Fold this sequence. Notes:
Largest sheet: 7 strands, mixed
Number of helices: 9
Number of strands: 13
Amino acid sequence: MLAKEVVQQLLGDKKYLAKKSEGQAYAPSNIALIKYWGKRHQALFLPWNSSVSISLGDKGAQTNIKIIQADQHQIILNGNPVSSDSMFYKKVKNYLDLYNNQLPFIFEIKTVSTVPIAAGVASSACGFAALCLALNDLFEFGLSKEQLSILARLGSGSASRSLWDGFVEWQKGTEENGMDSLAKPLNVEWPEFMIGLWCFNTNEKPISSREGMQRTVETSKLYKAWPTLAETACEEMCVLIKKKDFNAVGALAEANALMMHKTMHDAKPPVNYWQEQSTSAMEQVRQARKQGLDVYFTMDAGPNLKLLGQKKDLERLTASFPEVDWVSPFNQVM
């Protein structure tokens, strides 16, 4: 099935009319504790394994969208017009093209992102989730959040998880059309849980997540074991989150991230997002843990680290990692 057919199946054949002059929505970025890495279907963004994430509260994307009379879409990111020749513009246009039968319009899209773009902090996740939700606000699709999760997934796989605050599980699904590959909240409130963003390099990464993912799947021998191991880890992580077992959650998240990067390093040629600072930061976390501080790291497709900590340790965490921006995800939840 084509992605356009998925949109048509969800929205039906009718052409939607705008319910207001402008649609708007906010979506938080999310950090995967059990990673999504590898697609079983490229165009539909269907993953080989399920994944679990934690959303980042007020770190995300705010998008406003309206219909305009013009020859092409106008995209403005953080106050700056985006060139139609850029990869960012093309990704957004390709996503909007999926809706052509139901939404035959030209749009002006203004997005403000509070996370670095293309630096491994899930900017595409919150960006496409906010765009999907803004379209829903403008046209009132009448879909459930789980169905909107499918639509968001067609822009970026991780966007399926950015429709909720807190902990979210993206269920891989098994159907060929992807209608059962969607995210759902775990509905666990854990005010002690904190995420630290350690962003020492906010430049756009040289290898996109999509490129790195595809190369890993196609050429890494180590990747063959990944889907089964990651699926098992996902099931275990959901149990540990519900138990609020912080050290077990942190240890599993750290091990899963390192396993993902091992599969990348085994690709031909290797996909390496690590920098000298990445390795140094990992060692700092390990040393702090040896000194009795409960802190763990995870790392996505980029050089920057995300730390897992607890509110009761915030003073020590801040002293040990002064460069880290600590986020309390559950300040905004429930």
